[in-house]
């Protein structure tokens, strides 16, 4: 007998695929593979265009899931991935890099990897193969890329629960490169008590073409290693399965070079010669370690000799730069999931008990501030006391008309909450009560701890605190001094308050 119960959509409809891209030709190969693969499709494919400028991407092709393109304006890989998952509304977010090729059964295996995971599993990593040349030995760059096949928690193919990403603020945008930001995220998620597992889906990660100086440029990652140590302690490498590498030897070789120069300047030729010999021996050993397993053709040997002399001092320089840059760094908090604004006196000039849409007049910078939050994937809403309804001074229809005008002027809001009660009605929604803040968070499935309330009087920040959210006070002439003194966070303007939110200072 066939029942008439609700149709349960495929599990993948509870997931989105996020691909940050800088418009490389490899993106077309990835999209072709996703379009041709059989099996159920995820809810959507979100392409995050991380180019500062350029023609819009045109990813349309038959067979893809619904595609959405969003742009960062060039914020780097961590920011691009954050915008991607914040834009999505599904339970699972699967990240793919734009230079990988999923296997033909990737959709099916992704579904199998995620469908039956227990609640304490926050993420699933795919498996990576890196094809190397069969007709010759791989180059130094090719061998380095091959290490991705055994790396842990790399974003070439990894899926996370959206709630887990929100709980830790997503990727730490202080990691400016596609390096260590994935390990940092994994460690922070595991610090919450969640587990990460490996799935059975596969991707191919071809070796990307690179010029001869690529090994020199990647030494900037030594500064990111310092940030990892600052954030996760001295044993972070053990937890992240990240080998120490040659940095201590690079430091020793650099020290020998500096000593040789110092002794020469001090006219101590014997000491300078000994130090120079130490530098030469260290550099030669490093060069041979890179040349010996490689193809040993003229181009490769020349490149290894030149870069082996440059890498030790550059690695040391970037490490020292990181020590200075990342001193006193704090745990990443990320952006809030939701920012709620008071209306009168905060978003618009306060005309008491206003029921006329023509008098809805935004404060300076309001539209720009809201658009900046929207552009980063932060949802925005309004929580407004409208006691004029209870007092008989305005009607509910007038409040709705003014709210409609507000959206015309300032753009769409993800949630709008209004309290029509008076101060003596005993409701739980009128600020400073937390009802509207809690209801807005519940409507959008946001943890109040990941919400910020911005308002112009003490009742706004008190409502935030009572709901478990953060509050920012933006004083106006009607704000009492006692309210300013009591507020934990005060900003000089609406624009400054949003600046603080986007800087993580909330």
Short structural summary:
The protein is an alpha/beta fold and 506 residues long. It has 3 domains: 11-209, Alpha-Beta Complex (Spore Coat Polysaccharide Biosynthesis Protein SpsA, Chain A); 211-329, no CATH class; 338-502, Rossmann fold, CATH 3.40.50.
Q: According to CATH, what is the topology of the largest domain?
A: Spore Coat Polysaccharide Biosynthesis Protein SpsA, Chain A
Unreliable runs, pLDDT <50, ≥5 residues? none
Number of strands: 13
Looking at CATH, the homologous superfamily of the largest domain is Spore Coat Polysaccharide Biosynthesis Protein SpsA, Chain A
Mass-distribution shape:
globular
**Residue-averaged pLDDT:** 95
Question: What is the structural class?
Answer: alpha/beta
* Count, helices: 18
Please indicate the count of domains: 3
Strand arrangement in the largest pleated sheet:
3-2-1-4-7-6-8-5
What is the highest CATH level, the class of the largest domain?
A: Alpha Beta
Q: Quickly give the CATH architecture of the largest domain.
A: Alpha-Beta Complex
Model description:
With 506 residues, the protein is an alpha/beta fold. The chain has three domains: 11-209, Spore Coat Polysaccharide Biosynthesis Protein SpsA, Chain A (Alpha-Beta Complex), CATH 3.90.550; 211-329, no CATH class; 338-502, HAD superfamily/HAD-like (Rossmann fold). The protein contains 18 helices and 13 strands. It has an eight-stranded mixed sheet with strand order 3-2-1-4-7-6-8-5, sandwiched between helices. β12 (451-455), α16 (458-467) and β13 (470-473) form a beta-alpha-beta unit. α10 (247-265) runs antiparallel to α11 (269-291). The radius of gyration is 28 Å and the shape is globular. 40% of the residues are buried. The model has no long low-confidence stretch (mean pLDDT 95).
């Amino acid at each position: 007998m066939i029942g008439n119960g609700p149709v349960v959509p495929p599990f993948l409809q509870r997931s989105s695929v996020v691909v940050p891209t800088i418009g490389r030709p490899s993106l077309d190969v990835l999209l072709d593979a996703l379009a041709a693969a059989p099996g159920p499709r995820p809810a959507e494919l979100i392409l995050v265009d991380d180019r500062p400028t350029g023609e819009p991407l045109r990813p349309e092709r038959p067979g893809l899931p619904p595609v959405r393109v969003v742009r960062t304006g060039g914020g780097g890989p961590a920011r691009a991935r954050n915008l991607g998952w914040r834009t999505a509304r599904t339970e699972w977010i699967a990240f793919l890099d734009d230079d990988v090729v999923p296997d033909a059964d990737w959709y099916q295996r992704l579904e199998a990897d995620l469908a039956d995971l227990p609640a304490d599993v926050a993420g699933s990593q795919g498996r990576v193969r890196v094809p190397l040349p069969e007709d010759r030995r791989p180059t130094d760059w090719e061998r380095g890329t091959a290490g991705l096949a055994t790396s842990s928690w790399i974003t070439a193919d990894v899926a996370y629960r959206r709630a887990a990403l929100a709980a830790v603020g997503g990727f730490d945008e202080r990691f400016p490169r596609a390096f260590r930001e994935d390990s940092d995220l994994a460690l922070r998620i595991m610090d919450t008590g969640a587990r990460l597992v490996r799935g059975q889906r596969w991707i191919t990660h071809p070796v990307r073409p690179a010029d001869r100086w690529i090994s020199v440029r990647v030494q900037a990652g030594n500064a990111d290693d310092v940030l990892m140590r600052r954030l996760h302690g001295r044993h972070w490498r053990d937890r992240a399965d990240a080998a120490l590498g040659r940095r201590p030897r690079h430091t020793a070789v650099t020290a020998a070079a500096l000593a040789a120069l110092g002794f020469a300047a001090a006219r101590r030729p014997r000491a300078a010669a000994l130090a120079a010999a130490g530098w030469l021996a260290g550099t030669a050993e490093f060069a041979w370690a890179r040349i010996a397993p490689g193809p040993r053709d003229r181009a490769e040997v020349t490149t290894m000799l030149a870069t082996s002399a440059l890498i030790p001092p550059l690695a040391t320089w970037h490490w020292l730069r990181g020590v200075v840059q990342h001193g006193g760094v704090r745990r990443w908090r990320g952006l809030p999931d939701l920012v709620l604004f008071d209306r009168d006196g905060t978003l618009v000039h306060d005309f008491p008990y206003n029921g006329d849409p023509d008098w809805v007049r935004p404060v300076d910078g309001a539209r720009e501030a809201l658009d900046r939050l929207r552009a980063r994937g932060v949802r925005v809403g309004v929580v407004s006391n409208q006691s004029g309804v209870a007092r008989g001074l305005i009607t509910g229809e007038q409040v709705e008309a003014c709210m409609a005008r507000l959206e015309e002027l300032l753009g769409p809001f993800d949630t709008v909450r209004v309290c029509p009660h008076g101060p003596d009605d005993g409701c739980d929604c009128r600020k400073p009560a937390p009802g509207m803040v809690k209801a807005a968070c519940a409507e959008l499935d946001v943890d109040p701890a990941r919400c910020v309330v911005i308002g112009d009087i003490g009742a706004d920040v008190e409502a935030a605190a009572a709901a478990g959210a953060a509050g920012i006070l933006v004083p106006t002439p009607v704000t009492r001094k006692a309210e300013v003194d009591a507020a934990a966070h005060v900003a000089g303007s609406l624009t400054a308050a949003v600046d603080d939110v986007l800087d993580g200072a909330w």
